[in-house]
Amino acid sequence: MKRMVHLFFVALVTFLILKTTTFGWNLFSNSSKGCNPKDNIILGRIRKHIYMLSHKIGNRSVFYYDNLERAANYISEQFVTYGYKVEFQEYILENKKVKNIIAVKNGIKASEEIIVVGAHYDSCFNPGADDNASGVAGVLELARFMKDKDIDRTIKFIAFANEEPPYFKTENMGSRIYAREAKIKNEAIKAVIILETIGLYTNKINSQRYPIILGIFYPNKGNFITIVGNINSRHLVNKIKTSFRKYSKFPISSIALDFIPASDFSDHWSFWKEGYSAVMVTDTAFLRNFHYHRDSDTWEKLSYENMACVIEAFCSVLFDLAKYSN
User: Fold this and answer.
1) If you placed Cys at 43, which of 152, 212, 275, 308 could pair as Cys (CB 3.0 to 4.6 Å)?
2) CA–CA separation, 229 and 227 (whole Å)
3) What structural domains does the chain harbor?
């Protein structure tokens, strides 16, 4: 009997320790309150993009093919209005033609060296405002910002198809199609930045969760953007984080480890598979956003001022990464 009580006590303590470490322990992290984007044009435009993709268009996948096509057309039209020539990487899925949408900003000094900035434009049987209209909005606004800038390296802005289930982490993901072909072509991809759910921020206590144990080391409030990479991408993670902090006081966190649960849950996984250095920029998705993959992932719930601050900072980060000296 005593042994059973002892085992129960040990199990209970272990459970409580593991449970409490799924929440952040750092209660004193910087607040995202008071974030004021310098460029109100970005603020207005990201709201417009997200409203169009998630509210006007809605569910976007091969199972809602007309909507997927409407989303692709909208994204393409935005690139064209910025002055880009749009390229399509097409393939057949479920007897339907689907496509990655690519806009290229050519570098001057080292045009053969490439930076990929991408986000998936499909959704998981829901409006997909945070996941991932927010990421697409970020890609579009970064492309708009960089269009008239002189840069050393080439930047490819890509909206990927079919990241969501049932194609998630399969060979049918749009990013998987792209990354495999890039490897075959021996493209000199120096960095990949995937924007994945970047729209939700809160300063409420216990609003940020983590895989077990990690919470000990990270913020308690879901008020930050985070950079996720693997060991192979750790230098890119550090470079982005350092550059971000140079231009913005917005809270930022990072992790660069292999085998962390959910760390490969987006299109950067496709590039990791080919050995490229790639990171995910995220608000941590389901670890913060309870509307993740639900019909309630709608445009009015997002934190547009905070998102604008993040995108604004990444305009400068991307400009730094495009320098040949980096």
Assistant:
1) 308
2) 7
3) 2-321 (3.40.630.10)
Tokens coding 161: 């198809």
Taking Cα atoms as reference points, which of 284, 89, 62, 94 lies closest to residue 162?
Answer: 62
* Alpha-carbon torsion (319, 316, 186, 118), positive or negative: negative
Amino acid letter for position 301: K
Could you tell me the two tokens for 90?
Answer: 């097409």
* CA–CA distance, 45 with 156 (Å, rounded to integer): 20
Edge-to-edge strands of the sheet including 153-160?
A: 86-93, 96-105, 153-160, 110-120, 188-196, 278-282, 225-229, 252-256
DSSP-derived secondary structure for 173-207: SHHHHHHHHHHHTT-EEEEEEEEES-------TT-
Q: Report the C-alpha gap between 66 and 4 in whole angstroms.
A: 60
> What does the pLDDT profile of the chain (326 residues) look like in tens digits?
666 645 545 444 444 455 567 778 877 766 666 688 887 889 999 999 999 999 999 999 999 999 999 999 999 999 999 999 999 999 999 999 999 999 999 999 999 999 999 999 999 999 999 999 999 999 999 999 999 999 999 999 999 999 999 999 999 999 999 999 999 999 999 999 999 999 999 999 999 999 988 889 899 999 999 999 999 999 999 999 999 999 999 999 999 998 888 999 999 999 999 999 999 999 999 999 999 999 999 999 999 999 999 999 999 999 999 998 75
Q: Which of 140, 145, 167, 116 is nearest to 53 (CA)?
A: 140
